[in-house]
Amino acid sequence: MQLTVKDIMDFDTLLDAKVRTANSVLPSRPVEWVSITETPVENFVRKHELVLTTGIGCSNDMMLFEQFVRDVIESEASALAIATGRYIFDLPPEIICLAEEHDFPIIEVPWEVRFADITHDVMKELTKRQQTQSRKSEEVQQQLLTMILHGESLTKVAKYIAKQIGYSVVITDKKGHCRGRSDTSRLFLEKWQDNVDREVVPDESSLTDSTAHHPLHTKIKKIMNGKETMIQLPIIQEYNRVQGYLFVVAVNQSPMLTTSVVNILEHGVTASALAFVKENAIEETKMRLRDDFVWSLTKAPLQSLDQSKERASLLGYDLSADYICIVGFPENFQKIFQKKDYESYQQWVNSMIHYIKEEMIYAGESLHKKTMVTYQAEHFIIFLEVHDHHDESVHHFLDLLERRMTHLLPEVILSYGISDFHQNEAMFTQSYENANLALKIGRTQKGVGFRVHYADTKMERALLSLASNAEICIIAKETVTPLVEYEFHRDVSLIDTITVFNEHQCNVSKTARALSLHRQSLLYRLRKIESLTGLSLVDPNDLFLLNMSLKIWGLQKVREEK
Question: N or C: which end of the chain has fewer CB within 10 A?
Fold first, then answer.
């Protein structure tokens, strides 16, 4: 229990002392220190300090004495005890009015009362109460830890803390959503959610008390909301990350953050952090199990559909639905990281992966589609529930995902491969293989940031089959190698030239405009292609062989990874 000025006035030492001002506030004036101070005050008086003075040096200068009293008041001392009968005989009316104006207690102490006796009694009582508070603090700490280890809810933790400090307590996640509260009324919860929606809580803009003696005070933020005063304390985990908040709520008053209350709140914050760690560990375990399960679906056809469905059900998945596989590849994680001020790339990537997976799950929920999502081998793997219009479902999903990603993570570039729909025991494995192949072909043929459907890669897959023939590979290499070597030595891309030439149906004028070349320069390049390859661009057979060789050469990376 906090020592107050009222308690001190009950000491035998002060039986003959008189309270001259603000008698009604004595029970609410905590005392944490005691000192003997004379003018000047400067910064020697602390908050919640009982100040004893003889007024020496001020007896003949009432203006100086008035300034001394004003400085003590502004230092937020608990009270000022003035020894009268030697230097100060009567308290001037100006001093009385000044103290009453600020609800500040002034105590008149007879000169015969020794300050040493007063300080001895105050320090003795402070030590006694501090020892009692320390024992109570240890009991609270032990009880809170026991509650967390026994799996009690954060609501029970909040109620226990509230009982100890005498104020309402709310424990939230980092977005301010209530995870536990001491008040049970629905009205309170609705009002709290309204505060979250209006972004009243959590408040990151309030100033902290950097002058406080207790380290927890430097993290406290005070929020005024109508008749309510809320004290906000962050629940912090490793890497100084805010996991949630503990709020102390008082109506028509400001919570008294005495040392005892602050110690209890510190234990409450620690216990809440431990609860979040425990929840996160459970959730991370579930996520790992889900990731492993989804990854296992891509490895081999299901051996026992019933067992797989049972296992999926335990993890919150439904294998009886129809799915299409989407494989996404983040193209520029490294480039984005180089622009950021983070120490650990792996830590940053893990947070990005977690965030993107959450967005993928959210996109599915928004469209009322079941999803199974994992990140493996540097790829996002999504099994998306589909119904009759398979392509439409996939593109609605990716459109929504990309809109949110553009808003929240505009720098991230993702390329996608989309499978065909399969409906058999091998549907997950086959769908994944098809989507992964479509992704590889798309990145090779189109570049980054595109969506490629497996059904649209028929020609590339046919060429990949041809590329398994050794003689065809030799022909393709012999045809393309001279063009590659020319580009290396002359820095002129003949491969891009012939590609654009084909895209414009061998129209010289259109090709020249597309490449921003003079017509004669383009004709020179085309003749160079013919001379290097020994093929005529006007002969349909030669042009077919050249184009086939270029496509097989372009698919070389896909063929090597397949």
Answer: N
Can you tell me the distance from the alpha carbon of 258 to that of 192, in angstroms, rounded to the nearest whole number?
26
DSSP state of 237: -
Q: pLDDT value at position 210?
A: 46
Contacts of 239 (CB under 8 A, 6+ apart): 347
Long-range contacts: 160-165, Cβ < 8 Å, 24+? Answer: 161/246, 161/264, 161/265, 161/268, 164/140, 164/264, 165/248, 165/255, 165/261, 165/264, 165/265
Q: Do the beta carbons of residue 353 and residue 384 sit within 8 Å?
A: no
Cα three-residue angle 391-394-400, rounded to 5 degrees: 135
* Residue that has been written with the tokens 């990376």 in this structure: 557
Positive or negative, the CA dihedral 468, 469, 475, 478 is positive
Q: How many helices (H) and strands (E) does the chain have?
A: 19, 15
Q: Return the pLDDT at 217.
A: 67
Instruction: Give the mean pLDDT of 76-84.
Output: 95
Number of residues written out for the chain: 562
* Dihedral angle of Cα 515, 517, 521, 525, to the nearest 10 degrees: -10
- Contact at 8 Å (CB) between 472 and 466? yes
Collapsed DSSP state (helix, strand, coil) of residue 246: strand
Whether the predicted pLDDT of 213 surpasses 60 = no
Are 180 and 154 in contact, with CB atoms under 8 Å apart?
yes
Mean pLDDT of the chain: 89
Residue 560 has a pLDDT of 63
Taking residue 551's Cβ as centre, other Cβ atoms within 10 Å add up to: 21
* Residue of 253, 211, 260, 263 lying closest to 233 (CA atoms): 263
Q: What is the pLDDT of residues 321-339, one digit of tens each?
A: 899 999 999 999 988 888 8
Tens digit of pLDDT for each residue in 423-461? Answer: 776 789 999 999 999 999 999 888 899 999 999 999 988
What single string gives the DSSP state of each residue in 58-113?
Answer: -TT-HHHHHHHHHHHHHTT-SEEEEEESSS--S--HHHHHHHHHTT--EEEEETTS
